[in-house]
Each structure stands twice: as structure tokens, then as C-alpha cells.
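As the work plan foresaw, our protein records have gained a C-alpha cell line. A representative record is set out beneath this paragraph:
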Amino acid sequence: MAMKTPVSTSKLDDDEIDIGVLLARLWAGKLWIVLFTTLAATAGLIFALGTPPTYRADAMLQLEEKTGQLALPAALTELTSSDPRSVTEIEILNSRMVLGQAVADAHVDWNVTPRRLPMVLTALAKVGAPIPENDLLAAYVREGEQIRLDLLEVPARWIGRDILLKVGPDGRFTLQLPDGSARESQIDETLTESELGFALRIGVMEAVPGREFIIRHLSENAAIRNLRGRLAVAERGRQSGILELSLTGPDLEGTERTLNAITQAYLRQNISRSAAEAESSLAFVESQIPAAEAMIQTAERALNDYRQQQQAIDLGFEGQSLLTQISGLEDQLQQLVGEEETLAERYTPNHPAYQQLLSERARLEERLERLRSDVANLPETQREVLNLTRDFELAQEVYLELLNRAQELRVMRASTIGNVRIVDTATTDDRPVAPRRARILALSLVLGAFAGIGFVLIQNALRRGIQSAEEITSLGLPVFATINLNDKSAKNTKRTGKLPILSLTDPNDLTVEGFRSLRTSLHFAMLDASSRSITLTSAAPEAGKSFTSVNLAVVAAQAGQSVCLVDADLRRGHLRRYFDVPKAHLGLGDYLAGRATLDDIIIQTAVPGLCFISTGRFPPNPSELLMRGRFRDLVTELDSLFDVSIFDSPPALAVTDPIIIGNATGATIAVIRFDKTTANEIEAVQLQLEQGGAKLSGAILNGFDPRRVQAGYSYGYSYRYEYQRSEEPVSLEPEMPQRTVFLRSASGSVPQASEEEASAPLVLNEDARVSSSQAFPFVKNTGRG
């Protein structure tokens, strides 16, 4: 039969985002969203309750203003707003110099970690659930149990390795050392292993026997990295000179002690840096004192030796007077040199004050020169004694000056306080800063909801199955009916025993009404057909092809037609189970092989007007048997005996049997599974049948589920159906005259059941709406082989 190809102007893939469609898809997947949200909230709650608390210690430092800075106008001060001083001090606080000293002072490199319960059990314990004390959980430390480490020394090869401590009775404990050996000790007792270079002392041990703690001596670099990761330094305000320090840690007291160690180490280095100049000067002066002292001794020894040699005991009054005058003039000249340097910075040499100073210096130099001439007139002995005495006194003055300067520098170094002041010492709030349970739970809910939404959207994006009859129509195939999903039939997956026929067990089900709609569509479409045989196939298994064949045959027989249902799947056919036919019964395979006649294989079922032909024994060459002339003869003979012949064939994309069967029968119809069969598979079936000389006449959308339909296609199928039996049927349409339908048979036109008699009277709810009861055009097929 030929087929009119409907033209569809609908566009299935729209690039624009429809908010209504998007919301409808999310509503259809609300169960997934709720599931993901619930799982995420549960995981977040377990994490929040099972994570150990984290405390934070805070401290505050003040950076005092630097002295000697140039005062700038207000306008220029605003331009120089980026003072790098605070940034510099923050970097110093994070340096190894400061943190390394803090690690040594607070013993941050000593790490004690309790063996904690799994997170789920910890969360249960938080909410008051009892944790059993058994051998499996005895090693896990409970809340409130702790130990305090007072001493730890390990050899270099044990740095970073675990030492297992197991609590024993009466304050005793056992150590499992990294070399595999074990040691026993008790609290407040130092365990020393001199040969190994190991020492340990536990000061406090508050734990039940059997609990385990892991002790580890970290390397200095690891301890500094750990401390730097927990330390945060920031300036409060802009150019305030106030630094806020915060340190997080699992131990309330230990965190506070560590932050105090950091501030003290920073303060000491700041003081040391401020006193660096005085320290350097003091070191230089102290290095010169021994040389000055040696000069005094040398000058004194030379003077005494000369006196003893010349028997000169004293300079005499005249020599002493000259020596005193010369020393005084030299001191005055030295003072004038300093004053000249000061005046040279302010005036030129022509200035009166500068000229006066030069005149005074010339007068003193002239007088000094006269005194030196007087010294030259003294006797040689007195002159030599005078020179030696003058050298001794000069060396003595230098020595005393160095001693005085050294004392001044020591006082300066001791009185240096630096430019940093501790405003607030470290304190720790007893309320933990982490985990923030409310925030974690809220974030878990949000992430869970987004994960569920993403899963639903991705699932819809990846879903390529046919969603509506419009999609099939757009591919050029008429849709004869839409068969709704029946949950009972979908769940009936037993592999042995008799299968129920829905049209007989639940005739008022909406799915059965879909088969009646299919029967009506095919009834009118085949009025002009040359053969009243139908081939049902599908693209792939599990499309519901056998289910459709059986129920279509039953409802057609219930309408008064004579129907023959043929199981043409000679590979895996199982229609016999619907009619409780033995597997060994002769069937189609036996007939095609010549081992049986038509009378031998036709079975009269319990349904009036319905006959059945099973597969019989599965042949090894089904395709070759179907290509024999006996199969065409069978189709022709069935046409003469029955009003409708329905052939249930294998999937078209799996084997070539449907092409052979389709060439012999009057029409080939594809059963398309809702949300499973893809458009590409339908096109492949069309192409394969056309290449084999057959033609796909139409399609049946099977397994339609309004609950799973994607938004945008649900408008025509999302109404709720409810059929009830009624003693007095109520018609929703105007009364129409009864019309008799004539079907072709071997003996000519025979009056059959009217349309009103073809189906039982039904009552529909006011909001009920039949989704697909329209018949599609079906004309004679001229492409038979």
C-alpha cells in the first residue's frame, strides 16, 4: 500500500530557552531533585557533626610612627596612600625567622593526634547516640580524652614518622616506636633511650585504657608551613598601623599559647632590629678598647724608662705649664674645627661670623706655634719628658673616651623598645569557629538541589527517545495510535509460565482503550487494501511489539472480526505463552519446512474469532524458510480465511526477517517505544525496509507515560483518564445514526459489528480527553515484491 507523507512544520529542536518548558522538566524530575538534596543534606550534616572543632586565637599589635619622616601637605599625603610599612611587617610576621622561633618556643613541631572515630559515628555521638565499647572501637578516642606531651626528642631519622601511644591502666602507657620496638613508661616519668637519641615524657593522660594516640615530631620546615597556613595577619583599616593576628587550631589552649609565642618572637626581633645600630657601634668601640689600653701601657712604659734612664723625675714647673697650655690650645682648635663645619653649611667664607672664626683659629695656631718654640728651647731632657708625658696623657684620654662611649651604647641598647607594641595579647574564644554547621547545611542543601537540577537537565539533554506522536509524524510516518503504559504489564517480566493478556484481564484499562483506537484506525485504513495482513516490527527488542500484537488481535476479535495471530519471530518468539501453547506444538517453522499443513498449525484460542499460529520449533535457517514460496502461499490462504492476519516479526535492525515478511504482507507497521526508540532508529528501519523492497506504512507509539514526558510535548497527553462502568452509559457527543461497517472476506462483503457495538459503553470524567483516537490515511501498497 502506498502512503501519503504528512508534512510537518513543527521544529523539534528549538535553540531558544523556554522558561516554562524548563520549569516543567524540573517539576517532572522533582523526585531526583529531592533525592539529591536529601543525600547532600545528610552528607553535610554528618560532616558538620563529625568534623572536630577548630578554635581561633586573636591578638593585636600597634606599629608606631617612624621618627624623622618628612611632613607633607595634606594633598600630597593623600597621593602617598600606599604605605608599604604594614605590608613589610606582615611579611616579617610570616617569615621563617619569626615563625621558626615561635615553633621552638611553643613546641609546635610536637604533634599529638588522637585516633578519632569515623565521621558517621562521631556525628551520632554528637547527637547523643551511645557508642558501643567493643574491641573494634576501643582504640578510638572519645570526646574529652587527651594527653599532654612535656618532652619529645627523636633522632633525625625519625623526624616525621609516627610513634603510637596506647593508654594502659594506672597511668601507664605503651609506645610503638618507628623501628618496630616497644617501650613502656608512665606519666611524669621521662623515658630516655640514649643510644637512640630518644626521650619522651607525658605530663597529663586523661583517657580510658586502650585508647591510642599518634605522636609525631615534625621537621622545622613542616612545622613552619603548618603554622603559616593557620596564621592570618591583616591591617585594621587603612594606614592605621594596627595589625590583627589570628591563629586557628584544634586545641584551645595550645592555639593561644602558640599565637603568644609568635607575637613575642616578632617583638623581640623588632627590638633587636631597632637596636642594631647601637649594637654595631658598641661592637666597634669594644673592639678598639684593647688597642687603646695597649697604647696607654706603651706610652707609660716609654715615659718611665726614660725617667729612670735620665734620672728625671718631674718636668718642673715651667715644663708642666707649657704642657698644660699646649693641651688646652689643641682642645680649643679642635672645637673651632667643629664650629667651622657648622658655619660652612650656613655661610660662605666671606660672612663676618665665618671670618671671625677664621681669625680666632689663626690666633690660636700662632699662640700654639710660640709654645712649641718655647718647648724647643727647653733642655733636651725636659723636652723629651714633656713629649713622652704628652703622648701618655693623649692615649689615656682616648681610652677614657672609648670607655665612656661603650657605656653610653650599652645604655642605649638596653633602653631600646622598638616601634612595635602589643596592644592585645592572644586570647581564644571558647566557641569554635569551624565547622559552621548552619552554613554547611545550607550549602549542602543548595549544592544538592543544584546537583539534582543538573542531573535532571543532563538526563533530559541526553534522552533521545521519541516523546510524542508529532515527532514520528515529522519523520513522514502516520501514527495509528498512542498506547499508554500499563504498570502491571511493564512489571510482568517472568520468563516462564503463562502471560496475562491485558485486554482480557482488565478491559477497562486506558491502555486497552488505546488498542481499540488502533483497531479503529486500522479498520478504516485497510478498506481498500489488497491484503488484510499486517506485519508488526520494531527497531530493537523490548519495544512492546509482541504485547501490541496480542492485544490488538484480541480487541479486533472482540469487535467481531475473524483474526489470525501469527508468531513470525522464528528466532525468539514467545507469543505461545499468552495462549498457554506447548513449545513442541507444530507451528510456522514446521509449515514452512513442509512438515505440517495449515490445519495442523492453526490453533483456536479461547477468544471467539481469534486463531493463533505459533513459531513451532525454532529452525536453524529462518530467513531462508521465509523466502520460500510457502510463506506467500500462507499469507494468501490466511487472507481467504480471516478478516485480519497479524504477523509478529523480529526487530528490523537486528535481522532481515521483517523485510521478507513485509514484502509478502499488506502493510508493515513499526512499534515505537516511548522514550526509548530514537528518531535515528526509525529512519534506519525506513531505509532498511525500502532497500529490501518493502515500505513502512505507519507507526504505533507504545508505552506512553505522561509522568515521564518531557515538557513541551505533554500538553496533549497529560490529562488524567478514569473510566468506570455505568449501568446507563452517558454519551458526550451528539447522537449519530448507527452505521454498519462491511469487511472483505473470502465470500464477499459480510455485515459485521457496528461501531457502537465494537466497544463497550464507557463513562469518562468531565476532564477526560482521548489523546490519539484519530485514524490516519492508509492506501493500497503497490510496492509488494
Q: What stands out?
A: The first strand starts at residue 55 and ends at 63. The mean pLDDT is 80. Residues 380-415 form the longest helix (36 residues). The chain has four domains: 19-51+436-462, 58-67+83-251, 278-415, 479-490+507-727+752-764.
